[in-house]
Amino acid sequence: MTTANPARRRGRGHDPESVLAIAVGVFNERGYDGTSMAELARALGVTKSAIYYHVPGKEQLLARALDRALDGLFAMVADPRAASGAAIDRLEWVLRQSVRILVERLPYVTLLLRVRGNSVTEQAALERRREFDRFVSHLVKEAAAEGSIRADVDPALVTRLLFGAVNSITEWYQPSRGASADDLAETLLTIIFDGLRSPRG
Amino acid sequence: MTTANPARRRGRGHDPESVLAIAVGVFNERGYDGTSMAELARALGVTKSAIYYHVPGKEQLLARALDRALDGLFAMVADPRAASGAAIDRLEWVLRQSVRILVERLPYVTLLLRVRGNSVTEQAALERRREFDRFVSHLVKEAAAEGSIRADVDPALVTRLLFGAVNSITEWYQPSRGASADDLAETLLTIIFDGLRSPRG
DNA sequence: CCTACCGATCGGTAGG
DNA sequence: CCTACCGATCGGTAGG
Question: Which Pfam families match (chains A, B) (predicted)?
């Protein structure tokens, strides 16, 4: 009844959350396949064996991390604001939320975007990710159908490039310095919807 | 004096080019760290040890592949067309050429974009890549300074998002079907410079 | 290019 | 019986 984790009381040990957070940090630095359990142990300040007290194995660590990212994205899909109103407005909302989730769950989404399907865990994550992609792709097509988006570009290609720009955030965004998530989303939407060319150009 | 590679005469064996091409294909499928020399051997139809007849090691295979990508990008930087005229026109030319090189050297650039600096080879490639990034970043700033690009967005952020959209091509482009490199560049430039919003919207 | 291997390290598990 | 690990080692595989 005092503390959930007695070890933490003494300033030692790890809870499931800290193990996951540190592991994902190392995975993103070295790559999942490039990270050994020994490296993970070093980063956690415990022995390699002690990791297995906290988590069934390396792959489950990956699975939990990928769920963090995917659950965030699917919470957005389930939101009523993604389902009512003009398609262009829903698309804008989804893009804004995507940037927010990317920034909020940066290490988890970063890991997700690097998954290539090397295991059952990775394949399952890829399938969930593709499902989210299809959702956004459908939104772009609806926006094109209602005439909100220019007709001279292929909606499927537009979706790809949109994701490219949004997902690239994981490649360079540093929470400590630079733009906030809102500033980031604002600039992104301005460029995407209104273009880069100077209005007086 | 008959054939450069005697093994090839009998319809067997590999030349340095085929070894590199097949290896890069496997690296892109499974990830460099996720690929063992045994897997590579299987893909090449030879034993693991036989690979060392063709190439000094796994890392040199990576180094050669990364050079393919980087040499293409730097040939562009050295071109006079990247150095004269209005910044906006030079930027457009560089973006168009970037798409062309990405498509022409797709597997090599794909590999380059996934490098995280896990070895000296990877760190050297990352540094060359950053040099190219700085070149484009400078172009964007020049275009902003001459007033060709809207003043209400940060040029550094614009550069990041530009690269995000362009580089995402490696994530989904299939040479066999879909748009040509020229169509791709055209759509990309339309969206980036003129925006997604319908001109009548 | 293959057979026969090496030093070391891999992810994961034993008893205490 | 529990939590939170440790030192040592398992069967296999890594790059060479």
Answer: TetR_C_24, TetR_N
